[in-house]
Amino acid sequence: MKHLKSTTIPISAFGNVIKILDKAAAKMKVDPELLEFIKEPRRSTIVKLPVQMDDGTFRMFTGYRVQHSVVRGPAKGGIRYHPNVTLDEVQALASWMTWKCAVAKIPFGGGKGGIICDPSKLSKKELARLTRRYTADLIDLFGSQKDIPAPDVGTDSQTMAWIMDTYSMHKGHTAPGVVTGKPLEIGGSLGRVEATGRGVMISVREICKSIDLDLAEVTVSVQGFGNVGSIAALLLSEEGAKITHVSDQYGAIHNPDGIDIPKLIKHVESKKKVPGFRGAKRCGREDVLFCKVDVLIPAALENVITGKNARRIKARIIGEGANGPTTPEADVILEKKGVIVVPDILCNAGGVIVSYFEWVQDNMGYFWDEPEVNLRLEKKMVEAFYDVYNHSQAHGVSLRLAAYMLAIHRVVSILEMRGIYA
Ligand code: NAD
């Protein structure tokens, strides 16, 4: 996840999560005190990190780690390196992880971390020193039974290898279960790289089924062609869907007859950008969001579909590959327009599901082959999809509200069993 450049967040992302939680809770009977408890992050830590640059000078960085909830299990969530990281954003991302893990029925709570930096402007050695210092400062928070980081925007499997090594050096033993998204050689899982995109494909496939839409007939537009967008596009095209529009931070392309996704992936591997691909025409980046297609997959940034532009959406289905691409104001407009939104906490849960499988495999020291990982992912995603879908049908609410209602129920019921140690 190296290419994401700009994540300007004009509105409070954490405030948006609170809004949707309140809306979902209003449809349920939730003890107001418990609701307050589960809304707030359990612990937010800010660290100031002195890092020696390659020229010998020291530079201070700010890092965050938020453990939103440990009610269902250890905090779980990625670490983002980006110039626009804020505590508000990290708290929102940590909270989404809590609800996502509950929807996916995996025994984790929610966490997230971030460092304000531009990784593209740091050398590999500087990134290693920054990551090791961050890990050392937060060492007491992390642990395979406490808080398990993973890659997010601006970090990758190499970052996880440095965290794992730093943690292991301090603890005196190799501890692969402290992070997920590691390289395969040190305890990563087969299928993890493709897992989020695969989960998006499964969600889109199932929602199409529910409205009698044949996947082989659908047209798809994909915003963002990184890990999530490219794999989702590839797997959907393998199912017969026609991917007509693709964008990245550099521009957008379209081909009404369908873009050859394996060729586009090769092109992006060598040129590092979508524009310039020969098998499609250039178009505006906005066209990707507002074109007439069956399915739109936002797989880049937060807050891209807002109260200001939601009316222009022509897709029938939105499969949220990114975290938080749709604001609560946009949600209201889309619902009125009859656009079906498969929410992020369901649609992109494939990544954390296979992270969970990685953690399980690390803990038992035995590793599955890729078909087994994919089969288990398929089962978990389909189960989560129909839990949410059936709940939405039974309560006459949107898929997003249904997902949050289910997730709140799953966190609160465990909280009631465990009780609050007060
Ligand atoms: P990535 O960095 O691999 O890819 C992001 C893509 O978005 C790149 O192609 C980039 O060029 C593009 N992009 C950036 N700004 C853009 C813009 N203005 N218009 C169009 N495209 C733009 O990141 P990723 O791992 O694919 O993650 C994308 C989203 O999915 C993020 O919101 C992330 O939090 C979420 N997510 C990722 C995973 C995962 O396992 N990777 C899991 C769950 C959720």
Structure commentary:
The protein is 45% helix and 17% strand. It is of the alpha/beta class. The strands form two sheets. The protein has a seven-stranded mixed beta sheet with strand order 9-8-7-6-10-11-12, sandwiched between helices. Strands 1-2-4-3-5 form a five-stranded mixed beta sheet. Helix 6 crosses helix 7 and helix 6 crosses helix 12 (350-364). Residues 1-9 have low confidence and may be disordered. The structure holds nicotinamide-adenine-dinucleotide.
Bound molecules: nicotinamide-adenine-dinucleotide
- Terminal Cα separation, in Å? 40 Å
SSE pattern, N- to C-terminal = HHEEEHEHEHHEHEEHEHEEHEHHHH
What is the CATH homology-level superfamily of the domain at 193-342?
Answer: NAD(P)-binding Rossmann-like Domain
* Backbone CA Rg: 20 Å
Strand content range: 15-25%
Number of strands: 12
